Amino acid sequence: MRTIIHAGFLVSFIIFLFFSLPFVTANEINSSLPLIQRLNIRDTVFAQFISDVQASRRYVFNSRDSRNTPENIAQALTIYEYYPEPSDTLLTIAARCNIPYSSIVTLNRISTSGDFSPDTPLLLPSMPGIFIHPDPESELEMLLSSSREEQEGVLINISHGLTRIYCLFLPGADFNPTERIFFLNRGFIFPLRNFSITSAFGLRRNPVTGNITHHQGIDLAAPENTPVYAVRDGTVSELGDDPILGRYIIINHNDNWVSLYGHLSRIDVALNQRVNSGTVIGRVGTTGQSTGPHLHFELRRHGVSQNPERLLRLFQGN
């Protein structure tokens, strides 16, 4: 099966508005996707898929090849369908297919490594690259859309049963360190989009009392009423107003992690509320023992305070 260039100007223009992203051409893939029964070269469909993978790579990785044009890339991209076996994982599927797992997860809108289920059919692209959807549904998709808005790609339109998928394909692209951490869910997102660290974790002189104490978190300076985000999925376990912390929120996460947010100007969540990573939970303030608007942020595991700065730096890919 080969792809077909969709030349309708009006349709392309409408899809372009959906994306608000640059595109080169449009490519339509119909609903008759070849079905791979097993990831074994004895499976004739899988053998054809591997042949397509090998053929399509020259369009991506050989920049001097005169055939390496957006139109040819669109025609070289084929999509197959596969029903995973119970023993399959994303990594084993990607390895067998010789395609980065980032290509598989972005096409199939899998937001984290924990979201993969062998019970769910997968679409397998024959070409490595990133697929960006016009209607981001997860933190990962929002990150991809915002961080790659200047990149050009190939607009594709997949009819798959009753599902129609519009997305921008960036041939040869792969996750950057931040996107990879988001997908692997190994770290935490930072609670503020923009901030400066004004007080680090560990021993310090209290700016109000002048006493030397152990600072169990970090202070992140930001303008008053700046949105504060939950750093990971979890449940609001405590909130209140403390003489030192001011208005504060505590969220319980998986793996015995707990996050604390203090000196808030207001609280935007309720006790026992379930929140997702990136949910706005409050606003930066200067309540409690504070010398100016900032967020006091703590991370604890098994009740022991951890250094949040190390985790935030890891998230930022530094």
Helices and strands in order:
Layout: E1 4-5, H1 9-19, E2 26-29, E3 35-36, H2 44-61, H3 70-76, E4 79-82, H4 90-97, H5 101-108, E5 122-125, E6 129-132, H6 139-147, E7 154-160, E8 163-171, H7 177-184, E9 196-199, E10 202-205, E11 212-215, E12 218-221, E13 227-229, E14 234-242, E15 246-252, E16 257-267, E17 274-275, E18 280-284, E19 294-301, E20 304-306, H8 308-315
Parallel strand pairs: 2-7, 3-4
Antiparallel strand pairs: 1-2, 4-5, 6-8, 7-8, 9-12, 10-11, 12-19, 13-18, 14-15, 14-17, 15-16, 16-18, 16-19, 19-20
The average pLDDT value, as a whole number, equals: 81
Unreliable parts: 1-25, 314-318
What fraction strand?
A: 25-35%
Alpha carbon gyration radius: 24 Å
Major sheet attributes: 10 strands, antiparallel
Number of domains: 2
What key attributes describe this structure?
alpha+beta; Glucose Permease (Domain IIA); 2 domains; 24% helix; elongated; disordered C terminus
